[in-house]
């Protein structure tokens, strides 16, 4: 079976004040403001080709509005439309959105709104198309400046059901699971075409919960640099810099000014997963080490703090 | 009493500490080595919800974590609430804050749902 989803394309996240949010997301995180339109702002990282990867929406609460996954080919959108029909999942066709064409929008069992789309403007990254240097010169030197969005972790009241939905209907494949005593997956790390540890992960929790969304940071040095910038700007760090046993990624969990958790993720050890390889299994006994490798136990806020 | 410096009394522990002008209940508690439950510290997650008797400025909080009704009923998010007079606070079930405090249990008290892990 071919991969049909190329990556997590965008997340739309609620913030309580758009001005304060933009100050944080552009000056501290180092995203580029594409455009502010009404109560929304569209942002992207410096190395992304597509029009945007983060949408901030002013609201009276924090949390996730929707997540968009971009397909590999245009026909894949129709493929998933058929698939949703076949599984009797209600969906809407959204003919267009900001700098984007058609998307199909539906709700997954955990209550989250997902969109699948292909057409989106591709303005390119911040480098020339011809003979580029490896990084742009005009980045803010004291911002984190991640090159790309990486993945999203959501919470589900019935995680096993949500995992199954994402595997069967959306055709995600698992790199790693936490299984319960009956051998059922209660948490999963799911990937598609990029064959990275994950585009989407699911853990138990409230419906519609956004545990975090993550940006890639590649080297250990960059991770510590990011942590420095967080401290300089008095950003609340939840955990890290540390290492996950699951995904082997090095990360930092921190909060935006409204309590949405963000992660810098990646590091020198995040792997590629070969299709057909068996998922890695963690148990309820070993999951502490799985989530927080050095601490070897879940920090208290992991299962109880999210938007 | 100096402007903005108020007494915060944690019940039923019966511990009294003071906040600095403009300081949140959570910051004042942590400065006094009292580990009130907290997570995001930005009014977004709701884990720091406590009961408060007395006037506070509720601060910038997510409405789905602290509703207007809850404000009227005497709840606040300690990470955002700034006392406007001497106040009395307690955990939402009135239990004593001690070593047996359990985030998962408090989470189910607040959200009425259990985490499976
Ligand atoms: S600590 Fe998250 S709302 Fe107060
Ligand atoms: Fe993550």
From TrEMBL, chain A:
This is Metapyrocatechase. Belongs to the extradiol ring-cleavage dioxygenase family. PANTHER family: GLYOXALASE DOMAIN-CONTAINING PROTEIN 5, GLYOXALASE FAMILY PROTEIN. It comes from Candidatus Chryseopegocella kryptomonas. InterPro entries: Catechol_2-3_dOase, Glyas_Bleomycin-R_OHBP_Dase, Glyas_Fos-R_dOase_dom, GlyoxalaseI/FosfomycinResist, VOC_core, Xdiol_ring_cleave_dOase_1/2, XylE-like_N. Pfam families: Diox-like_N (PF22247), Glyoxalase (PF00903). It comes from the Bacteria. It is an enzyme of class 1 (oxidoreductase).
UniProtKB/TrEMBL annotation, chain B:
The keyword Iron applies. Pfam families: Fer2. Belongs to the 2Fe2S plant-type ferredoxin family. Residues 6-95 form the 2Fe-2S ferredoxin-type domain. Gene3D superfamilies: 3.10.20.30. PROSITE patterns: 2FE2S_FER_1, 2FE2S_FER_2. The keyword Iron applies. This is Ferredoxin. Its cofactor is [2Fe-2S] cluster. CDD domains: fer2 (cd00207). GO terms for molecular function: 2 iron, 2 sulfur cluster binding; metal ion binding. It comes from the Bacteria. Signal peptide: none annotated. Keywords: 2Fe-2S, Electron transport, Iron, Iron-sulfur, Metal-binding, Transport. InterPro entries: 2Fe-2S_ferredoxin-like_sf, 2Fe-2S_ferredoxin-type, 2Fe2S_fd_BS, Beta-grasp_dom_sf.
């Amino acid at each position: 079976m071919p991969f049909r989803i190329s990556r997590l394309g965008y997340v739309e996240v609620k913030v309580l004040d758009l001005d304060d949010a933009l100050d944080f997301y552009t000056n501290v995180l180092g995203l580029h403001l594409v455009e502010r339109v009404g109560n929304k702002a569209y942002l992207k990282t410096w190395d992304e080709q597509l029009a945007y990867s983060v949408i901030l929406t002013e609201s009276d609460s924090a949390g996730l509005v929707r997540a968009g996954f971009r397909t590999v080919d245009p026909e894949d959108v129709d493929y998933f439309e058929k698939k949703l029909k076949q599984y009797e999942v209600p969906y809407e066709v959204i003919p267009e959105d900001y700098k984007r064409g058609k998307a199909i929008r539906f709700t997954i069992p955990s209550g989250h709104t997902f969109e699948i789309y292909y057409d989106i403007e591709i303005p390119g990254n911040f480098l020339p198309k011809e003979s580029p240097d490896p990084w742009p010169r005009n980045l803010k030197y004291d911002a984190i400046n991640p090159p790309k969005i990486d993945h999203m972790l959501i919470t589900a009241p019935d995680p096993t059901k949500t995992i199954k939905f994402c595997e069967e209907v959306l055709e995600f494949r698992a790199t790693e699971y936490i299984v319960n005593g009956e051998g059922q997956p209660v948490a999963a790390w799911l990937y598609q075409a990029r064959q990275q540890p994950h585009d989407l992960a699911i853990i138990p929790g409230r419906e519609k919960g956004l545990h975090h969304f993550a940006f890639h940071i590649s080297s250990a040095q960059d991770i510590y640099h990011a942590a420095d910038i967080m401290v300089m700007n008095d950003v609340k760090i939840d955990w890290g810099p540390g290492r996950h046993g699951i995904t082997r990624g090095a990360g930092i969990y921190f909060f935006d000014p409204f309590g949405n958790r963000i992660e810098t993720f990646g590091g020198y050890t995040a792997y590629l997963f070969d299709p057909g390889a068996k998922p890695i299994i963690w148990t309820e006994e070993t999951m502490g080490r799985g989530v927080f490798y050095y601490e070897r136990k879940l920090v208290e806020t992991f299962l109880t703090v999210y938007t | 009493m100096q402007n903005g410096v108020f007494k915060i009394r944690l019940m039923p522990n019966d511990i009294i500490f003071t906040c600095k002008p403009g300081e949140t209940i959570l910051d004042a508690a942590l400065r006094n080595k009292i580990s009130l439950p907290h997570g995001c510290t930005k009014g977004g997650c709701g884990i720091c919800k406590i009961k408060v008797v007395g006037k506070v400025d509720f601060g910038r909080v997510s409405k789905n974590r602290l509703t207007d009704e809850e404000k009227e009923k005497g709840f606040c998010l300690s990470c955002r609430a700034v006392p406007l007079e001497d106040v009395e606070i307690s955990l939402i079930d009135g239990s004593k804050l001690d070593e047996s405090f359990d985030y998962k249990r408090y989470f189910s008290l607040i959200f009425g749902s259990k985490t499976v892990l």
